[in-house]
Inverse folding.
């Protein structure tokens, strides 16, 4: 039953991260052809922003070492296909292949900046500045990921003004869009509201903010609902709930796109996504990965042929 | 980080259903002594309303056929210990053992009334009326469960006025509290708000309403958040996410108490529950059941000694 809620957006753009954020956390690399087919199927299911891969050094993310092979195989896909770039070298590789959407990856905390980027927060922002400028000069759209916005495995609670500072720096260097990441999945709706309110006050338009929640503690969809109530219209999600965070014991990671679409459909919010086709795609990918999707909706809607190593 | 939200309740009473709604869905019966120990541990973890068992005919729910043995073993537990009764006979058995809290189980839809109770909705309400009256005369507190409030596997969408009619009938016959059940887990937050608004208009006080969400499509916590925003202060949940719905393919069932407590704690809402002790209890019960808890929070917080048949 569709019951629209006054004050909620009428349309949400889903930023699908399964092919990048999901597959980069797999123990073994998925064949390039399967990745390309996955992206095609996601597009057929109605997704229009599909983060495709990452141009990081293969040493750090061997699962996505085939970015150069993959990208030309999907160049005809009629969708926005952002790619992650960690530095100048990654940007050069991505632009050379014709990427039109770039994403950079910053941290709200010093500990994660050190662990993930081997730099301080300010050093990493300094690295990104020329990257963002060059991407913009090349006509690319730039997304800035901000990880650990709500909690950090080393530092615990993250002071929200610290998050606002990093967001403002990324916006000031030219990012078109920011994605607020709850990398370890600890946030609850009050924190989401509080951060969005602070970002309002700092002059960052809600229309340029996306949210990126992890379901490690089961909070992702409640947090998304709080963000929608604040007016957010870009939500990151991962088909079938692919992916996880190496710092949490649990395998549960990204918000599953199917669970998100179920909620948005019920709220009368347009996404353009065909839930049944998307579920079929996640079941197909689960077959390649050899284990069932952790998405509740995929489990409920999926055929019984879904691989079932799970309970 | 605790960020209270204006307008949300400051305290929520969790109606713990794991020992009844959870264990009644297990394939094999759990030994009576383990059930009693489970209830004691739930109390030690801070839960104060613990639905203990069901006085239904053993033929229908063999998993809880030991109600007569169990109830005296927990009579010293300092908590409210509601028990489910399907009819006069069940009530007599429960009252004879000293039960002070009774729950009856109605359906918002004809199909589920027929499948679950083998009666029409009105016939089942007629059966409950003398049961509720006698329970009240005996000084017992009576909860009325209303199942299939948002969707029904046979009928699909459930017209909300139909739900309001059943709720009003139960209230009029003397129920002290109602529990609004999304038995197949299909609801989204807009439906929750819509039903609660209709119940307001029908004169049913929100203070006498509980919500009972299933996580079949991952919506339970988002729906709970919507209910809290409406002022609901009683939330049903099942320790470790025990239980499921026989009509859904998925094993995912009740909202996990741990996932609920994580959200409430983050919102600064008091529950009296010690999350670590509760997680330990669910891990202990998972050991008895031989499979890991489906609760995201239990998976994230639990020790690595949690049985791990899962991915």
């Amino acid at each position: 039953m569709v019951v629209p809620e006054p004050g909620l957006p009428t349309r949400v753009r889903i930023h699908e991260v399964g092919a990048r954020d999901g597959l980069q956390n797999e123990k073994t690399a998925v064949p390039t052809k399967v990745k390309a087919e996955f992206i095609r199927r996601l597009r057929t299911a109605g997704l229009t922003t599909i983060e495709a891969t990452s141009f990081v050094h293969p040493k750090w993310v061997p699962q996505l070492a085939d970015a150069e092979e993959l990208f030309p195989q999907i160049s005809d896909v009629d969708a926005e296909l952002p790619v992650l770039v960690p530095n100048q070298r990654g940007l050069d590789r991505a632009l050379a292949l014709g990427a039109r959407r770039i994403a950079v990856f910053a941290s709200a905390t010093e500990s994660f900046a050190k662990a993930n980027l081997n730099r301080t927060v300010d050093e990493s922002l300094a690295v990104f500045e020329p990257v963002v400028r060059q991407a913009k000069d090349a006509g690319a759209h730039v997304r800035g990921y901000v990880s650990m916005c709500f909690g950090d495995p080393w530092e615990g609670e993250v002071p929200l003004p610290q998050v606002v500072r990093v967001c403002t720096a990324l916006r000031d260097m030219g990012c078109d869009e920011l994605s607020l990441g709850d990398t370890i999945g600890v946030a609850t709706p009050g924190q989401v509201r509080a951060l969005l309110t602070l970002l309002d006050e700092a002059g960052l338009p809600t229309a340029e903010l996306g949210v990126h929640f992890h379901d490690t503690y089961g909070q992702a969809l409640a947090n998304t609902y709080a963000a929608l109530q604040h007016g957010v219209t870009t939500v990151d999600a991962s088909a079938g709930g692919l992916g996880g965070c190496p710092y949490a014991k649990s395998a549960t990671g990204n918000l599953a796109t199917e669970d998100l679409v179920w909620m948005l459909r019920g709220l009368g919010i347009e996404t353009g996504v065909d839930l049944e086709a998307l579920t079929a795609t996640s079941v197909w990918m689960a077959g390649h990965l050899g284990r069932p999707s952790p998405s509740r909706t995929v489990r409920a809607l999926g055929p019984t042929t879904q691989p079932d190593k799970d309970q």
